[in-house]
Write a structure and sequence with these properties.
Blueprint: E1 2-4, E2 7-15, H1 20-31, E3 36-42, E4 47-53, H2 58-66, E5 71-75, H3 84-119, H4 137-154, H5 156-167, H6 173-196, H7 208-231, H8 234-240, E6 246-251, E7 254-259, E8 268-271, E9 280-285, E10 288-291, H9 293-296, E11 302-304, E12 309-310, E13 315-316, E14 321-327, H10 333-346, H11 352-379, H12 384-397, H13 401-420, E15 423-425, H14 428-435, E16 437-443, H15 444-448, E17 454-459, H16 465-475, H17 482-493, E18 501-507, E19 511-516, E20 519-524, H18 526-531, H19 540-548, E21 552-558, E22 561-569, H20 576-585, E23 589-593, H21 598-608, E24 612-614, H22 622-629, E25 635-640, H23 646-651, E26 654-658, H24 663-668, E27 671-673, H25 679-713, H26 716-719, H27 727-746
Parallel strand pairs: 16-23, 16-25, 23-24, 25-26, 26-27
Antiparallel strand pairs: 1-2, 2-4, 2-5, 3-4, 6-7, 6-8, 8-14, 9-12, 9-14, 10-11, 10-13, 15-27, 17-22, 18-19, 19-20, 20-21, 21-22
Helix pairs in contact: 1-11, 3-4, 3-7, 4-6, 4-7, 5-6, 6-7, 6-12, 7-27, 8-13, 10-13, 11-12, 11-13, 12-25, 12-27, 13-25, 13-27, 14-25, 16-17, 19-21, 20-25, 25-27
């Protein structure tokens, strides 16, 4: 997409990355290119987000990526209909996974007899004399070589990628495995030549089994890791599968099924009971219900009737429904949700930068440690077998896979689970910031409250309440003001015969004037009454009482005289109090921001259980109030739903928009809540804290593993009389660390 000022932002699918060092080296290389402003490479999603100017093109970017032996192609996200490109990508991943599984089975089939031949006799297992190291050492060595070669072939990618990266001076995890196991293999071949020359002592110094078993274990670890990573995309797959592949459409009097990809705005679509809505639209025929649970996390179905909006991907209930398509393809709500989730999974959290910096220099440092350790042990008089053992073990045990997977895997699983629960994080930054929230600023109308005021009290000292209500309803019939709508709704509920108003004139920010049944009518706030010189002193006591109860006030004047005052109340959402209590338990302070007067704000604040409130704030002043709160302990979060909240949402450390809010508010926010009420907000905060804890656990164990494993592999324990770590155990430990990190992240799928 174009972001302005000749800057472009695109996502590329990257192939050929095998570890954190790969992603770090690619990110470092691309960030140095002229024209690149910002770049982020995600190992888990295998995507690169890049912001660049017009001096670069998509083709040039792909060429630059390919120069590092990776593949690149532009990635377009968000089509709810599961495009052919996404299907192809999914199928390709499954093929790769199955191919890797076959290679693992091949390696295991040869590694087991290799271990038996090479080490079985050491623990008393019988070995035929024809291949005995004592009687036939050359046959013994040749058999091990023959069993090792298929394993090397099965793990050939380690060597092509590893040595290729080394030649290009961007060593990665595969480089460590390739150098280590190839060194062991070369030593084994050297020993074989020595045996053939008559030096049979080398029969006990073969390293074939070390090279073979390390390749097998690392390949097994990568397979288990890939299979686990495949599950991290379950949420995206579930969302893309929500949209049906076909739709029943009526065009030009003809009804038939067409692919969803061919739907156009304005199409008349029919959905039978139990079917899925293929796109967004407005119902024109039928009564039913819609299950939105997969989109919003809400378990209760929503009633659907003529005029109701329906969302693509939701499930139709018990009735046949006909609707007109309003949004199709990539413009549907489902497509936008998918796009948000993919964007969030592709963007790194700030905490990931630490791991990236470490991973970027880790491989060269480890190679140096391996060489230095080998040289030191050689200088103190250890034989070649011991030195090679140390060299290979350090290289293998230090593979930084777990370090690179620690953050992106947790974010990917966490954001996917959040989407299933009706919470959309737009980025990893938003997820991390929300976890450290200490101050929560809540818009009142539509956020804390239902956003649908209802007339609670009417005070009309000189006429009947119904008469005044009838006149005011006539004047307010066309108004969009919440209290005006409440007055009209109250008249409708009482089934009053509302006359027609003439000479209607809106007075922005104050009210409305009109002529009803020959009477001049003014309906609006006290400011309007004061401007027109209307004495409302007779209404003051009643108005103050209504205000103290949290009512919004609307004054009425008939023929230049004060006629009465309406008190409308916007009820607190049923879950607001419970949600605020939950936030308090997490040490988060809740502040209500409203344009209401002090008394009304105080009454509502008390019912909502917020810690404090800021009253009398105009829309343009909300952002400045947010700025005043920033700079203290923790992050400031703004929650809103309207156009007037957009500047405040953008100003806050984290902007949260309720899904029922306006498109502008949602666009300005960092987190979007799809469900009703504030319960999804509690879910968003709890989940963000859980994800950050998971990341810290992953990083701790990754750093701990390498901090302990490298010194042991280098022979530190051996120097003080302890054991020496063998390459086989080093390979097993390395594989286990990667699998454990991914498995820990997958626990987030069970979050409730």
């Amino acid at each position: 997409m174009t972001v302005g000022d000749n800057m472009n932002e695109k996502t590329f699918k990257i192939g050929g990355m095998h570890c954190a060092a790969c992603s770090a080296s690619l990110e470092r290389f691309m960030s140095r290119q002229p024209g690149v402003e910002q770049v982020s490479v995600n190992l888990t999603t295998e995507k690169m987000n890049i912001r660049y100017d017009d001096t670069l093109t998509v083709e040039k970017i792909c060429e630059l990526v390919k120069s590092l032996s990776f593949t690149a192609e532009e990635y377009v996200s968000g089509d709810a209909a599961l495009s052919e490109a996404r299907k192809k990508e999914e199928q390709e991943k499954l093929r790769e996974l199955n191919a890797m599984k076959k290679r693992v089975i091949l390696c295991i089939c040869f590694a087991v007899p290799l271990l038996y031949v090479s080490m079985g006799h050491m623990i008393g297992l019988p070995l035929p004399s024809a291949i005995s190291p004592g009687e036939h050492p050359l046959t013994f060595a040749l058999l091990q070589l023959l069993l090792t070669l298929p394993i090397v072939y099965g793990g050939r990618n380690f060597y092509t990628n590893g040595f290729g990266s080394l030649v290009k001076r961007h060593p990665n995890m595969d480089t460590l495995v390739a150098v280590g196991t190839f060194s062991a293999l070369c030593y084994g071949v050297y020993a074989l030549v020595k045996i053939a020359g008559g030096d049979h002592s080398f029969a006990h110094n073969l390293f074939f089994e070390s090279a073979a078993v390390v390749v097998t274990l690392v390949l097994l670890g990568k397979y288990l890791e890939a299979r686990s990573k495949h599950h991290t995309s379950d949420a995206i797959r579930a969302l893309t599968e929500l949209a049906p592949e076909t739709a029943t459409v009526t065009r030009h009097g003809q009804t038939g099924e067409i692919p969803v990809s061919e739907l156009r705005e304005g199409d008349v679509v029919t959905v039978l009971p139990g079917g899925r809505f293929p796109c967004d639209g407005v119902v024109t025929e039928g009564i039913s219900s819609a299950d939105l649970s997969m989109l919003t996390g809400e378990s209760l179905p929503v009633n659907v009737e003529v005029g109701s909006e329906v969302t693509g991907g939701s499930i139709n209930g018990e009735g046949r429904v006909v609707f007109t398509a309003t949004k199709v393809g990539g413009d549907t709500a489902l497509a936008q949700i998918i796009r948000m989730v993919e964007d969030a999974q592709g963007k790194k959290a700030p905490i990931a930068k630490l791991a990236d910096r470490v991973a970027g220099v880790f491989v060269p440092v480890v190679m140096c440690i391996a060489v230095v350790s080998a040289i030191i042990w050689a200088l103190v008089g250890k034989d070649a077998e011991f030195v090679l053992n140390v060299f290979v073990s350090v290289l293998v045990v230090a593979c930084p896979c777990s370090l690179g997977l620690a953050t992106p895997t947790a974010i990917m699983v966490g954001t996917g689970r959040a989407a299933e629960l009706g919470v959309l994080y737009k980025s990893g930054e938003a997820l991390q910031a929300l976890a450290y929230a200490k101050t929560l600023v809540l818009d009142k109308t539509g956020t804390l409250t239902e956003g649908k005021p209802a007339v609670k009290r009417i005070f009309a000292p000189e006429t009947s309440e119904d008469e005044l209500l009838k006149l005011c309803a006539a004047a307010e019939a066309g108004s969009e003001h919440p209290v005006a709508k409440a007055i009209v709704a109250a008249a409708s509920e009482k089934e009053l015969d509302v006359p027609e108003a003439t000479a209607v004139k809106a007075l922005p920010g104050r009210g409305i004037e009109a002529e009803v049944e020959g009477k001049a009518l003014l309906v609006g706030n006290k400011t309007l009454m004061d401007e027109r010189g209307i004495d409302v002193s007779a209404l003051t006591a009643a108005a103050e009482e209504m205000a103290s109860e949290g009512c919004m006030l609307m004054y009425a004047a008939v023929s230049g005289k004060a006629a009465g005052v309406f008190g409308a109340i916007d009820e607190i959402r049923s879950d607001s109090g419970e949600a605020i209590d939950s936030l308090h338990k997490m040490q988060i302070k809740a502040i209500m921001l409203t344009g209401d007067n002090e008394k009304a704000a105080a009454a509502i604040a008390k019912r909502a259980k917020v810690d404090s409130f800021i009253a009398g704030v105009m829309p343009e002043g909300k952002a400045s109030e947010i700025e005043k709160l920033k700079g203290g302990e923790g992050k400031v979060v703004m929650v809103g739903d309207g156009i007037n909240d957009a500047p405040a949402l953008a100003s806050a450390d984290v902007g949260v928009a309720v899904g029922s809010g306006t498109d502008v508010a949602i666009e300005s926010a960092d987190v979007v809540l799809l469900g009703e009420g504030l319960s999804p907000l509690v879910t968003a905060v709890r989940l963000s804290k859980k994800v950050m804890l998971n990341i810290k656990e992953n990083l701790f164990w990754a750093f701990f593993y390498n901090s302990i494993g490298i010194p042991i592999a280098a022979g530190l324990l051996y120097a003080f009389g302890g054991p020496l770590l063998s390459p086989m155990f080093a390979g097993a430990a390395m594989a286990l660390s990667s699998v454990s990190v991914v498995s820990n992240a997958l626990r987030l799928k069970r979050f409730k």
